[in-house]
Specification:
Layout: H1 3-17, H2 20-32, H3 38-54, H4 61-68, H5 74-85, H6 92-103, H7 118-131, H8 145-155, H9 159-175, H10 181-192, E1 197-202, H11 210-229, E2 241-244, H12 258-279, E3 282-285, H13 293-304, E4 315-320, H14 326-340, E5 344-349, H15 354-364, H16 375-391, E6 396-401, H17 405-414, E7 422-426, H18 431-440, E8 446-452, H19 459-470, H20 475-478, H21 486-489, H22 493-498, H23 533-546, E9 558-559, E10 569-574, E11 577-586, H24 590-609, H25 612-628, H26 630-641, H27 645-670, E12 674-676, E13 682-690, E14 693-697, H28 705-716, E15 720-724, H29 730-742, E16 750-752, H30 757-766, E17 770-776, H31 779-791, E18 799-802, E19 808-811, H32 817-829, E20 841-845, H33 846-860, H34 881-897, E21 899-903, E22 919-922, E23 937-943, H35 948-957, E24 963-967, H36 971-980, E25 985-988, E26 1024-1032, H37 1040-1043
Parallel strand pairs: 1-2, 1-8, 2-3, 3-4, 4-5, 5-6, 6-7, 7-8, 9-11, 14-15, 14-17, 15-16, 17-18, 19-20, 19-24, 20-23, 22-23, 24-25
Antiparallel strand pairs: 10-11, 12-13, 13-26, 21-22
Amino acid sequence: MTNNLSKYFDQIRHKEAQSEPACVQDLLQVLTHVAHDSASVQADSEALIAACRARKHEAGSLDAFLQEFGLSNREGVALMCLAEALLRVPDAETADRLIAEKLGKGEWSAHKGQSESLFVNASVWGLMLTGKVIDLHDDSEPDGSNWFIRMRTRLGEPVVRRAVYAAMRIMGGQFVLGKDMRQALKKSQSDKTHGLRFSFDMLGEGARTAADAERYAKSYSDAIATIITHRASEQVEFSDGISIKLSALHPRFDQLQLDRVEQELYPSVLALALQAKTGGIGLSIDAEEVERLELNLRIFEKLAREPQLSGWQGLGFVLQAYQTRAIAVCDWLIALAKETDRRLMVRLVKGAYWDREVKRAQELGLPDYPVFTRKCHTDVSYHACASRLFDAGEALYPQFASHNAQTLAYLMHLAPPGAAFELQRLHGMGELLYDVVKTRYPDVPVRVYAPVGNHTDLLPYLVRRLLENGANSSFVNRFLDAKTPVSELAQDPLDVTQSNPELRHTGIPLPHRLFCDQVVPWQNSGGLDLYRAADYECIQTALAKLLPPAEGSGSGSAETPVNVDHGALVSVKSPADHARLIGSVREASSSDSDRALEEACRAQQAWCAKGVEFRAACLDRIADELEAAMPEWVGLISVEAGRTLADGISEVREAIDFCRYYAQQARHTMSVPLILPGPTGESNTLSWHGRGVWICISPWNFPLAIFVGQIVAALVTGNAVIAKPAEQTPLVALKAIQLMHRCGVPESVLHCLLGAGADVGAKLVADPRISGVVFTGGTDTAQTINRSLATRPGPITPLIAETGGLNVMLVDATALPEQVVDDVIMSAFHSAGQRCSALRVLYLQQDIADHVLAMLAGAMSELVVGLPWETRTDVGPLIDASAQQKVLEHIQAMHRDARLIAATPLPEGLERGHFVAPHAFEIESLAQLEQEIFGPVLHVIRYARADLPKVYQQINDSGYGLTLGVHSRIDGFARSVFRNTRVGNTYVNRNMIGAVVGVNPFGGQGLSGTGPKAGGPHYLQRFATERTYTDNLVARGGNTDLFTMSDS
């Protein structure tokens, strides 16, 4: 990238870091220099809308469909869910249940005869037949399948299922031009007589496997060849073209895999571009998720500078106006075009992943959203970008995609005389609007963006279109609705934006302030995003200070806990490379333990007397310091615990969340005694107090989050603490203790004792001066602690234990295979499977098992096992040689007793670390697994739907009950799994790891733990003792409240 272009790239990154109000202000400044007659634009907008409403009966099927079934009614949501899933379901029984549940939720008769579209009214009659003729209210099945079974029995054949399948295919056919390019070109011929051009998009999800990528590449190549044979013009901009998604051409199209992607993907993209150039057609790089933008730009720049593509003016880029970076990307594209002396095609769209981007930003705790939160801001961005594109002159060929009459009117006024540009619409949508536009502006060319592919490939595209265009704020949903004033639809987004001084959506909180309006409010942690250059560089700077030389023994510094003098000095090495000495620590001796316990006992009462507010303020300061130094913590966790950078970020955030959440919970529940009822003249209150000294025994797999969470829960409730961290991760623990001391927790109240659990921990647990034990670790160890507490003299001591589990995921035939594979990979293999919540057993409905397992095997081969501090690494090391050996022995046994599905390649050069490649095996029964295997090993069991009761029984018979996943589009199935299994945390249609404090309180039952759930509203009470105070007020001189009551 040249210096000049780098300047514009820096601006893109600058916009990424800006707040939404700042970005909007910049756009408003841009538009102040754009001359247009706002009143004329509004008048033309209103004229377009009025003309369309006058011809409402001519509206296309999908426009009418979206108007009748928007996302504001149950029927619209039901149809979206049904369309998304039905056509991929292979077995009749599951399809019947899906149809029954979704159609059973609709009030279809309310839509009867409401539309002027024959297609919509025919659909309503069919849906009424299935959803309302049969009484749905007496069904015992939660998914409403009983009525469907009765109907099928009465008719003698699955008539309804066939009818609904047909309806879904018809609906899909309204969106998709053809199942292949030949059919699409044939169907497009009638439109071409009206002067329409086409840009074809081959439907499909992003590649998960190398085979997927090869299949998509062939599909694109075949499509280009077919388009070329039907080319109608020698000029690229007058010819049909194609749009390609780079994520379809590489299974790891990810900025974190940059070097590999550029090396492996570019030849495939170049081959397609050369084919398009040879045939004289256009090829556009389609827009994708925000974290893929920079990677898209890098590949696009490489194509623009490619000597083999010189002289070709058909290279195109799709620009999303809803991104806050859009205007900066626009400037970068213009600069690239001028540098390369190439006319670039730029399709300006508003964007189709908005809800996904909002959720992702919230999950990551970003400072602000990467997309605009108000539709008018996106429209303002679109207008500003359009102005830039027109100003670029011959450098660009602008292509404006919109179904908004106001936007189209604005473009017509903005376009310079004689400017070369085109308008674009989606196939099946906006037909009436564009007919009116063509009548008023006959010389403006129009291109149709037309999906091509099988109906089963339609699903993601269909859902995005329905979400984008069916939302209440969408122009498409409202412009034919007479209830919406024409003037409202024709408003200038500039005026709408300036009327709201907030310059952001007030109903969408900032990502790091999601929970500030709760009954017990708390501020969730901010996060780091490895896809953002500034965050990435901060972490790399921290790592550079932490990573010692690979050889030698003098690089690590010695750390000694407070009040520890006599123990042995122990070296600490990285599990990723045992030649790396990262520090040394002094373990606690028996006398050190005795002294720590004596000091804690003496200090506890004074600490408790400080009051809740004082203690909670300490927690707030701890959280703030953790957040301020997040890169350093992420680096240390990666080096010492072997956790990947992404895992480290989420762990530090969890520790912060524990501090803030528990601080607020304590303020809410423990600051003031709870007033209890009683007879007149008597006062009754209940208050909470610290129990005494707690020992907190934490694991190595979350060396900061669980360690901090246990300690601060005990501290804020008025207890003194002796922390016993895992011997594998002492550096993280000591640094955390030092931080807590700096933040106001007295050294006499909080002690840290290092050493083996069998030595240090066992002795403390057996001491009757310990008032409580909180433990996270193995089930066997928890049972040992429980027995020790039961046999020691003195008070009965509470134990809070969170242990492991044989965690399962159940997948039925309605699940989306790509989503299943993504979530299985994350749940089973991320963190090298070293999470107590990790997926151990995958139950797959036998009807889809072969397809899903083939995709899983391909996806596993793409995983990167490597050094945890490298951003490209997916799977890091196991914690030590003992853990590695245990998992390898299990893998060896599985090779003998099970069928290998796949194993991830283990690269060379990792011999000095404790690495184990991810493996997946197929087994017959859950009974084959007697205990949790704490590593990257997945076990798969096929099941028949009729055998679900047996599956539930197997899960419950295992005795474990920590986490469970469900993938299904049938809500009733997910609820049935939840109802019939005894498991602490159930996750539906997502991964089953990464519980969020206050959102997913975490903890199991049975062999998986005692409760209460960590990070939940009932956790702190277990650390406290309750006292009631009853005062007979009458004894002190009468009941004044009673005497002073009025006589009414």
